[in-house]
Amino acid sequence: MPKNNYDLVSLKIENFLKSNISNYSRLRNFDFGVNNRENVSCLSPYLTHRIVSEFELIKSVLEKYKFSSVEKFIQEVFWRVYWKGWLEKNQKVWGDFVNSLSAIKTNDSYYEAIEGKTQISCFNEWVDELKTSNYLHNHTRMWFASIWIFTLKLPWQLGAKFFLEHLLDGDAASNTLSWRWVAGLQTKGKHYLAKSWNIEKFTNNRFKNVCLNEEAEPIEEIEANSTQKNDIRHSLAQKNRTIILFENDLLPQSMSIDYKKYDKVLVILLDNSKRNIFLSKNVFDFKKSLINDFNTVLDNAKIIKSNELEVLFDTKKTFDVLYPSVGENLDYITKCKLKKKLNLNFIIRKEDKFCWQFANKGFFNFKKNIHKIIDELELS
Length: 380
Prior knowledge:
Elements: H1 5-20, H2 24-27, H3 44-48, H4 54-64, H5 71-89, H6 92-101, H7 108-114, H8 121-133, H9 138-151, H10 156-166, H11 172-183, H12 196-202, E1 234-235, E2 242-246, E3 264-268, H13 281-297, E4 301-303, H14 306-315, E5 318-322, H15 328-340, E6 343-347, H16 350-356, H17 363-367, H18 370-376
Parallel strand pairs: 1-6, 2-3, 2-5, 3-4, 5-6
């Protein structure tokens, strides 16, 4: 029996590599239902919070398999790295998304959708699955987003928000940019339309004759007024004796950072009063369990609440911060930096820094550099 989430994810990786990865490329697009997930890894909640890093996972895979036999799985893991890197270079997209939420008016169709009371039975089941298991198969997320945008004609921003509220693996980059991709905004004019035959086939005939808008045009971009720009300078070196980190990067050991060199490692999970998007209880409780585990595996770690941290900022101004990447956590700490006049040394993991340089265009360009990344980071 795993004693914590770190042991649990190690066991999940071991089982997936032993039994299921060989069929991943052939079966990955099938959603067989909530009780049959053996065709996918289900590691995303742990990757999102870096209970295991993308790079550790890829290294584990390549220790057992040749690249050519697991290429599709490795590409899927690198999509997460790519999305983060792309959003780092296009931070206004996140700012526009967040700012747009307060301006969008909800209606009866929206409430029917989030309560699973539409006329589309598969969509309603997915809403229930999302709220109860806090997970959806990746292919199902694409169908869900397409139905939300093109059949129910709801703003994509509200759908992206709904996912972030309920997904255990909710990630600012992957979630926001995936919704934009479905809508036709990420790759201009190229959208994703869910098709009834596709849903029938890849749910193994669980849902048939789904009535959808299969002829919709891509959504057009409406420019928001966000001026969000991150002028943070990243560092690779420790400068202070105390480091602050957030719940989306809980890797206790890595090639980049040695926490043993710090007197204190302050771990923070923002409560909903500090967030733009409120998390559901299930998601918040999951995150809480993760920081509790981090706190037990690192002797110098201390969980700190946001109000306690802000009090500390009144008297102490200089800290290292593990760079949390674009999203809620970065929004929070940059506001604190300005308000409290802090001197923060933002440490970026060298693995991320190296990979993000290739995220300036589309994924095809990033993909061409995967072997270079694997060699540079010694993942094989």
